[in-house]
Amino acid sequence: MVKKQLEPLTTPMEKANFHIFPDFCKGCGLCKEKCPNDVLIWSEKLGVYGTPIVKPKDEESCIACLICEMVCPDAAIYIEKKRGKKAV
Ligand code: SF4
Ligand code: SF4
């Protein structure tokens, strides 16, 4: 039996750290669709069903609004806001 590694992949950005759990992401694209700044792009890494997961395209575009985290049906994203950085 394969043991699941419930570890996030983390991308540091200006306003937040973007964490995604590949073992939860099913590659539905909802987060990507709802992000107001088109921050998220497909990654070369694969999720639970062997489909690509998402990643931020750069470090500057994310405004740490948390929408991607809220809309993900599988709780695969955690946006860790950096102290003193407000959503715009
Ligand atoms: S926190 Fe907001 S701006 Fe940043 S990636 Fe998620 S939806 Fe996009
Ligand atoms: S909404 Fe969640 S499950 Fe769907 S692609 Fe985004 S992170 Fe993956």
Task: Write a concise keyword list for the protein shown above.
binds iron/sulfur cluster; mainly beta; single chain; two-stranded antiparallel sheet; 88 residues; 2 helices; Alpha-Beta Plaits; 3-stranded antiparallel beta sheet
Structural description of this entry:
With 88 residues, the protein is mainly β. It has a domain at 25-81: Alpha-Beta Plaits (2-Layer Sandwich), CATH 3.30.70. The protein has helices at residues 30-34, 67-71, and strands at residues 9-12, 16-20, 40-46, 52-56, 77-81. It has a 3-stranded antiparallel sheet. A two-stranded antiparallel sheet has the order 3-4. The radius of gyration is 13 Å and the shape is globular. One iron/sulfur cluster binds next to helix 2. One iron/sulfur cluster is lined by residues 35-37, 39-40, 62-68, 79.
* First-residue to last-residue Cα separation: 46 Å
**C-alpha-based Rg, rounded:** 13 Å
Element-level helix/strand string = EEHEEHE
* Stretches with pLDDT under 50, minimum 5 residues: none
The name CATH uses for the topology of the domain at 25-81 is Alpha-Beta Plaits
